[in-house]
Design a protein that fits this description.
It is a single chain. By secondary structure, this protein is α+β, with helices and mostly antiparallel strands. It has helices at 15-18, 40-53, 120-135, 152-155, 166-171, 197-207, 211-225, 272-286, 289-299, 301-304, 306-309, 313-326, 391-401; strands at 6-8, 27-34, 59-63, 68-72, 79-81, 100-105, 108-114, 189-196, 235-242, 256-263, 334-341, 352-359, 367-374, 377-384, 408-411. Strand 3 and strand 4 (68-72) form a beta hairpin. Helix 2 crosses helix 3 (120-135), helix 7 crosses helix 8 (272-286) and helix 7 crosses helix 13.
């Protein structure tokens, strides 16, 4: 089939390029631990073939008069040795304007994605193809499909008019904010724990909750154990939800929404089970298809509103940045994203030993948690802007150690 020369950025992702600065980008990271040292030439050849297969990643971001769009990138991709700085902003000039960055170090491959390009599910499909091609250059990774760059939000919009106050209601109220002294310069701290997936799932099963609810409940309990007693705001865990599960789509672009799980730490018993069950109940009600449809429609509001659409892009971008500058308290305490189980293709079993996942942070949300499962190992990775403050991370792992789990803990230079 013919691949697109250009296509529009999906409505939900419009906010990301408007928020880019020289030091702040909306990035997330996928990584792979290999059983042998990375061969850069083989990796580059794999990337070239993956881009042929996935044209929605072979793009550059362009500014239109009224909105952003993706255009085919005519420059070759680049790979280079990783500098060890977690979420070092992508140098788009050095990166030939690609919206993802592939680096390597010893036996690890890293891929940082600009969130305006894709979500975790789309990125994982592309990254998995790169790994498959790295393991076996003749691996079958299918063929491009125009469904992979469709706007899932527009496809599944019910056309139902939003009632007054819907957007502000869905955005939620202010939440407890984690505070502390931030790192200067580039890069953030990493605290990562790895444990047996079977044992981890057994705890969730015992409590009658999902793995995501267990993780989110534990991290909210860890925050509560270290919270400022004078701050009465609710704890709020923001949890990304993949809309593809209820609204069928093959898109590799963004197609997720955010579910808010709130806890009043002064009204809930401070046990892992109580917190996990409360989060699980909110996830169950939050993934109701009617509610998800409302959120999906709300994501399209500004993209469909004629008055907003006719505002020049430069003015819209200025308004967004000004709004972020003067915004009040945060509406989420932390973001907890569970990429789920990553199953390896047979050709990868002898090459890849594990998958990693990391989230970016911000001034108002300086600590986030990303988790992924592969090869029966659950990886729980905290990213932090906070200098010398690991109290929440320590409490989190201690909570699970109290349930009988053991962790292998990995940190980066920011935590040494």
């Amino acid at each position: 089939m013919n691949t697109p020369e250009w296509f529009r950025i999906d409505n939900s992702a419009m906010i990301y390029p408007m928020s880019i600065t020289l030091t702040t980008q909306s990035l997330f990271r996928l990584s792979a631990d290999l059983k042998q040292e990375v061969n850069p030439k083989v990796l580059y050849d794999a990337l070239l073939k993956a881009l042929e297969r996935f044209p929605s990643f072979n793009v550059v971001l362009r500014n239109g008069v009224f909105r952003y769009f993706f255009d085919t990138n005519q420059l070759p991709p680049v790979i280079y040795e990783d500098d060890g700085i977690l979420f070092d902003p992508i140098d788009f000039k050095k990166n030939n304007a690609y919206l993802f960055r592939i680096t390597y170090k010893e036996n690890r491959i890293f891929s940082d994605f600009f969130h305006g390009l894709c979500d975790g599910a789309g990125a994982m499909k592309f990254f998995n193809a790169v790994l498959m091609l790295y393991a076996d250059i003749n691996a079958d990774i299918g063929a491009p499909s125009e469904n992979e760059w469709e706007d899932g939000f527009l496809k599944h919009d019910s056309k139902k008019k939003l009632t007054k106050g819907t957007i502000s209601r869905l955005a939620g109220t202010r939440a407890y904010q984690i505070r502390g002294k931030f790192f200067g310069g580039e890069g953030y701290a990493l605290t990562e724990g790895r444990t047996d997936a079977t044992a981890f799932k057994e705890i969730a099963k015992t409590f009658g909750v999902t793995v995501t609810a267990l993780i989110a409940g534990a991290v909210m309990l860890a925050v509560a154990k270290n919270a400022n007693e004078n701050d009465k705001d609710l704890l709020c865990c923001a949890i990304p939800v993949d809309l593809r599960r209820q609204f069928p789509s093959e898109t590799l672009l963004n197609f997720t929404t955010i579910l808010r799980a709130e806890i009043d730490r002064f009204a809930v018993p401070s046990t892992l089970k109580d917190y996990a069950v409360l989060v699980d109940n909110q996830i169950t009600s939050g993934i109701d298809k009617e509610l998800l449809q409302e959120k999906l429609n709300a994501s399209n509001f500004f993209g469909k509103n004629v008055a907003v659409r006719l505002i020049p892009l430069c003015i819209k971008s200025f308004a967004v940045r000004l709004g972020k500058l003067f915004a009040g308290k945060t509406k989420q305490t932390m973001l907890v994203s569970n990429l789920g189980l990553v199953k390896f293709h047979d050709s990868l079993s002898s090459v890849v030993s594990g998958i990693g996942f990391n989230l970016n942070v911000s001034k108002k949300v300086p600590l986030n948690l990303a988790t992924v499962t592969s090869n029966n190992i659950v990886t729980l990775a905290f990213t932090s802007k906070l200098i010398g403050n690991t109290a929440i991370e320590k409490s989190f792992f201690e909570i699970f150690e109290g349930e009988g789990l053991k962790f292998d803990i990995i940190t980066n230079e920011k935590r040494i």
